[in-house]
Design brief:
Blueprint (H helix, E strand, L loop, with lengths): L1 H15 L7 H7 L3 H24 L6 H7 L3 H26 L4 H26 L3 H21 L17
Length: 170
Amino acid sequence: MAEFFFNLSSNFKKFFAPFPHFPKKLLSTFIPLIPWYLFLRGLVKIVQGLRSLSGSFQFGSLPKVFSHLLDINPIYLFWDGIFNLLVGILYFSAFTGLAQKKTQTKGWQNWFQASVALAGIRLYAIIFHQTSVFWSLTLTLIGWYLIFEFERVFDEKTITKKSSPIKKKS
């Protein structure tokens, strides 16, 4: 599984390589704020998950006007809630990894995994909730671009080829 995410990450790096890069000095000012952004992002995803779970359990007790306005099967809300809770937990694990100097490489890997899972939730929302394809794709690409921009600036000593999960054969 780790090998899959490593390969996916290197393919995205190749994809974003020709795009213009932000100056390292500008990005380095935001590096201390990234763990707190991930903490808040995880908190928001957990709240969204609990909201969706609550909506799926109370769907039958809603007034008829509201249940017709929602027009979503409660099972879709239930799975949306479960997926959002899992992504929130992934964001929290990325926060704890990036907040400590020893585990920052693991934090970056968890951040990428959380963003891939978030893209999966957006795809789920496009299919089952009929949300906008354009905005979901745009936000996902911008988010991944910023992840790789921060990774480029982060700390060359922390993120190296030695941290890759793929073992090279001698």
